[in-house]
């Protein structure tokens, strides 16, 4: 097993809700991320799934040190990244890069592709001497499957998939160790999604990258991930390998999510159980006591309201699950191939 | 310009090998030799192809030369006149006619360009630079800095323009004193700046606020770009458009404002000349010598139009989507 390169330890990110114009009064906290812990190993892909508003993107921003966590630690190779300043921060930035969700807004419309992909070299001047930058940019364009002659084009002259490739090339320019992909394919057509995912997979094999792959699409995550974490309302509710999560889910929320995945085979479909959750996701400003999923859970007991279930391996499970009554239930999920 | 639709097709086509995406190659905007061009080279290449740019640049050049060397355009002394000839219509000797004191209107229009152009261009540049700078600082930093700067701007915004200008000019250029023409021009320009920077500050601030949260700013921060770099390379280029449009309009309104102040006796004083002063003087004699009002007004409109056209063509050239 490879070493842990990124350790996330009980990270909490709360946003204050304020009232008043001049004298701001904090009247509450939106608990976007509330105690998430996991570790990323070198060269692996960790998928993070969850519905919108569960804190996935906030988590990615904390991992990128774009937001300071309210409490908790993010350690890259043993060093807490939120305390880094100046040089150390810059060095850390070289190692952790971001691919953003929307390729239409993540590229400055007034810069050419050459400038966009060359910008990392201009910021981190020590990576490439001035004379070699153009060649490097062209190599990157080729690496992500774009025509290296299109250096002088502008983002609007490309399609969504091509723009996402530009975004990926920019993230790879500094040869990072970790790439945080924040829903990198959710803004793309299905046919392009496959292309971009295959590209990400190819790049991982070639460059030995570790991915944190955030998405709300379970099949997309399964395609790429070695391990998967499921988030609900700011917390990780289940964490395990690809197979553990998809074949033997133990948390009721994961089970409900997986039961909603459409099954292409009509004969299997008839035997499939669909777990329908009732109600909406509670507000992260005022989450339920105890287990956060209890308001929508069919297994909820009194214990769930009183005691918060920890993300640990229990008697009837083989991987960590944050449910007092975690157990395996037969789910027909997407089977690859 | 190549058709972006071509790219979409290439990308959608399944199984296109990496590097094969350009099989449907169309003429690239610039020879695709792969030589990178800077943003400014692109803008210049685009500007060069616009007739509107050349026409407006030529007109502005003419006006600037007129302001600097009026004697190139006329050999007549604008201050000389004989009351015998007053209020004459256009003739062979006086192309635009003569004013109430028998002075040549053509010569006065030419000589009047200096005050109008110098005051309006300097005041506009100052307003845009000061207001734009404060707007960027206020919008990008936010928090209490934004609060403080915005309230200061509100104070200036609350001053009625004429009252404020009268106050400033009355203090520093009281009637009866005879400061040099340059000093009065500078004073007028400064008072225009002081009273109108809050508008450009607000325009810039709101543009910065809308751009600040954009994904590409987050991407630049994730790359480790310094705030200075983010503002210079990402924020300002994306905020310039509205500012350019505003500043070209401002030039026109400042030429008018200078005239108003002169008319009230706190700006330039006769015998100094400006288009604004001439238009004001001519109002009462519109039916006798329409040319007295018409010609300076025509010059003023042409100058404003030239600046507006220049601003418009630069704005279009700066926006890659319009290329």
UniProtKB/TrEMBL annotation, chain A:
NCBIfam families: oligo_HPY, PRK11308.1. One of its GO terms (biological process) is transmembrane transport. SMART domains: AAA. It comes from Pilimelia terevasa. Belongs to the ABC transporter superfamily. Keywords: ATP-binding, Nucleotide-binding, Transport. GO terms for molecular function: ATP binding; ATP hydrolysis activity. This is ABC transporter ATP-binding protein. Residues 6-258 form the ABC transporter domain. Gene3D superfamilies: P-loop containing nucleotide triphosphate hydrolases. It comes from the Bacteria.
TrEMBL record, chain B:
Residues 1-35 are annotated as: Disordered. Residues 113-311 form the ABC transmembrane type-1 domain. One of its GO terms (biological process) is transmembrane transport. The chain crosses the membrane at residues 52-74, 117-142, 148-172, 244-266, 292-311. It is found in: Cell membrane. GO terms for cellular component: plasma membrane. SUPFAM superfamilies: MetI-like (SSF161098). It holds the Pfam family BPD_transp_1. It is a multi-pass membrane protein. The keyword Cell membrane applies. The keyword Cytoplasm does not apply. Keywords: Cell membrane, Membrane, Transmembrane, Transmembrane helix, Transport. Belongs to the binding-protein-dependent transport system permease family. This is Peptide ABC transporter permease. It comes from Pilimelia terevasa. The lineage of its organism: Bacteria, Bacillati, Actinomycetota, Actinomycetes, Micromonosporales.
């Amino acid at each position: 097993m490879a070493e842990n390169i990124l350790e996330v330890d009980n990270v909490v990110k709360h946003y204050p809700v304020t009232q008043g114009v001049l004298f701001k009064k904090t009247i509450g906290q939106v608990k976007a991320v509330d105690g998430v812990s996991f570790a990323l190993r070198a060269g692996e892909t960790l998928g993070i799934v969850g519905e919108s508003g569960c804190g996935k993107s906030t988590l990615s921003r904390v991992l990128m040190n774009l937001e300071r966590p309210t409490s908790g630690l993010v350690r890259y190779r043993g060093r807490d990244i939120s305390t880094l300043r100046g040089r150390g921060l810059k060095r850390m930035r070289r190692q952790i890069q971001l691919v953003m969700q929307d390729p239409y807004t993540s590229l400055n419309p007034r810069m050419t592709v050459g400038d966009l992909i060359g910008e990392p070299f201009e910021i981190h001047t020590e990576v490439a001497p001035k004379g070699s930058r153009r060649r490097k940019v062209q190599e990157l364009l080729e690496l992500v499957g774009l025509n290296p002659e299109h250096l002088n084009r502008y983002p609007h002259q490309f399609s969504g998939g091509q723009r996402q490739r530009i975004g990926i090339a920019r993230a790879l320019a500094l040869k990072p160790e970790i790439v945080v992909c924040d829903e990198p394919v959710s803004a793309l057509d299905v046919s392009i999604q496959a292309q971009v995912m295959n590209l990400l997979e190819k790049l991982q094999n070639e460059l030995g990258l570790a991915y944190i792959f955030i998405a709300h699409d379970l099949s997309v995550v399964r395609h790429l991930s070695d391990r998967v974490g499921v988030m609900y309302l700011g917390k990780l509710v289940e964490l395990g390998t690809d197979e553990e999560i998809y074949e033997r889910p133990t948390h009721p929320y994961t089970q409900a999510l997986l039961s909603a995945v459409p099954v292409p085979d009509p004969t299997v479909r008839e035997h499939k159980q669909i777990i329908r959750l009732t109600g909406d996701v509670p507000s992260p400003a005022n989450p339920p006591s105890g287990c956060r999923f209890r308001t929508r859970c069919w297994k909820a007991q009194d214990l769930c309201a009183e005691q918060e279930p920890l993300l640990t391996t229990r008697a009837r499970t083989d991987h960590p699950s944050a449910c007092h009554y975690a157990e395996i239930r037969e789910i027909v999920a997407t089977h690859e191939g | 310009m190549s058709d972006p639709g071509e790219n979409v097709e290439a990308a959608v086509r399944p199984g296109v090998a990496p590097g094969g995406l350009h099989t449907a190659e169309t003429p690239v905007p610039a020879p695709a030799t792969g030589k990178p061009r800077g943003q400014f080279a692109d803008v210049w290449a685009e500007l060069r192809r616009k007739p509107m740019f050349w026409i407006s640049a030529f007109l502005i050049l003419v006006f600037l030369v007129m302001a600097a060397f009026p004697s190139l355009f006329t050999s007549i002394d604008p201050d000389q006149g004989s009351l015998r000839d007053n209020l004459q219509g256009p003739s062979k000797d006086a192309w635009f006619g003569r004013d109430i004191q028998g002075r040549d209107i053509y010569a006065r229009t030419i000589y009047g360009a200096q005050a109008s152009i110098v005051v309006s261009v300097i005041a506009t540049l100052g307003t845009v630079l000061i207001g734009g700078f404060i707007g960027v600082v206020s919008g990008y930093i936010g928090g209490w800095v934004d609060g403080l700067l915005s309230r200061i701007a509100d104070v200036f915004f609350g001053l009625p323009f004429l009252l404020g200008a009268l106050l400033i000019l009355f203090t520093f250029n009281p009637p009866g004193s005879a400061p040099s023409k340059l000093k009065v021009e500078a004073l007028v320009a400064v008072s225009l700046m002081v009273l109108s920077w809050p508008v450009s500050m607000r325009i810039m601030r709101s543009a910065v606020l809308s751009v600040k949260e954009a994904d590409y700013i987050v991407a630049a921060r994730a790359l480790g770009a310094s705030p200075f770099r983010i503002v210079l390379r990402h924020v300002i280029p994306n905020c310039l458009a509205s500012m350019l449009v505003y500043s070209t309009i401002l030039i026109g309104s400042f030429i008018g404002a200078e005239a108003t102040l002169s008319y009230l006796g706190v700006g330039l004083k006769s015998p100094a000349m400006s288009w604004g002063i001439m238009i004001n003087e001519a109002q009462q004699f519109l039916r006798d010598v329409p040319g007295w009002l018409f010609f300076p007004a025509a010059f003023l409109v042409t100058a404003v139009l030239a600046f507006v056209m220049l601003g418009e063509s630069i704005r279009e050239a700066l926006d890659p989507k319009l290329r």
